[in-house]
Amino acid sequence: MPRRFATLDVFTRKRFAGNPLAVVLEADGLDGATMQTIAREFNLAETVFVLPAEQAGHRARLRIFTPAAELPFAGHPTVGTAVLLNRIDGRTGRHEIVLEEGIGPVRCMAQAHGADAGHARFELARLPSELEGAPDRAALAAALGIETTDIGFDAFLPGRWSAGVSFTFVPLRGLDAIRRCRVATAHWEAAFGPSGDAAAYMFCSETLDAASAFHARMFAPRMGVAEDPATGAAVAAFAGMLMRFAPPPDGEHEVLVEQGYEMGRPSIIRLAMTVHDRKLAAAAISGDAIVVSEGTIEA
């Protein structure tokens, strides 16, 4: 049967930049295996399937797939789907949308910008936590095709963090080191483990845009994502890295992270942090999205 879908570019205000996303709007009756097959067909970093909400007052339930696996939560699917549903609902002002994801209810504020674009911000359903197992620098360097001397800057050290999806964070000394990164398949498991969801997030404080605080890249080859243009779930977990290695003072803070430039798809992700008594009290991810295409898929 034909099912409506839309594609959007997320964490950008321009089409053909940012992170592409497919959203299947009429997913009732599809099982997980079929959803995975459709996600493989779209072959984008993530594809969202929109289902009726299970709890009254919530807008929808989402299932999120990479070309190789299902995720409990992801950043650009949350932002893009909130913008799209707000558009479908005909809302023009700021409007709260609650999306049910594998991590739990995710509260979003969405606002339209014209007929085909908008902005969305979502509160983290789970604050970041540090995972066990300190990454080995030599193994990381081998897996990323760089030198051990490229790793680390200021107080930052490699670490593993999650705010619903786990990432290995690799601080690099600058843009030159970031640009030289590549996936060395033969060394990947030794650095990032045998798990199929192993993802590497490389970052530095040297940026291309003066407004950005960090420049980043993300590789997740075992999940079918050779490189991701913008990774909101990683930036959500990155709040934990900031609190660990560069803690801001109490108050409200916004950190801009640029990503996707090496792919020709520049993206800007905004991380908001609320710090109280030197602890992370709350955090949110926000960004823009624009509709690129609409149609139907037979499934």
CATH architecture verdict of the largest domain: Roll
Strand order of the largest sheet: 1-2-3-4-6-7-8-17
Q: What is the total tally of β strands? A: 17
Helix run count? 6
Topology as H/E string? EEHEEEHEEEEHEEHHEEEHEEE
Can you tell me the overall shape?
globular
Radius of gyration: 18 Å
Q: Average pLDDT across residues?
A: 97
- In CATH terms, the superfamily of the largest domain is Diaminopimelate Epimerase, Chain A, domain 1
Reported by name, the CATH topology of the largest domain is Diaminopimelate Epimerase, Chain A, domain 1
- Catalogue the unreliable spans: none
How far apart the termini lie comes to 6 Å
Largest sheet: 8 strands, mixed, barrel
Count of all domains: 2
CATH hierarchy class name of the largest domain: Alpha Beta
Plain-language structure description:
This protein has helices spanning 32-42, 75-88, 137-144, 175-180, 185-192, 232-245, and strands spanning 2-10, 19-24, 46-51, 60-65, 70-71, 95-101, 104-112, 117-123, 129-130, 159-162, 166-171, 200-204, 214-220, 225-228, 251-259, 267-276, 279-298. The relative contact order is 0.19. It has an eight-stranded mixed beta barrel with strand order 1-2-3-4-6-7-8-17. The chain is α+β, with helices and mostly antiparallel strands. The chain contains six helices and 17 strands. A hairpin with a 4-residue loop joins strand 13 (214-220) and strand 14 (225-228). It has two domains: 2-125 and 288-298, Diaminopimelate Epimerase, Chain A, domain 1, CATH 3.10.310; 129-286, Diaminopimelate Epimerase, Chain A, domain 1.
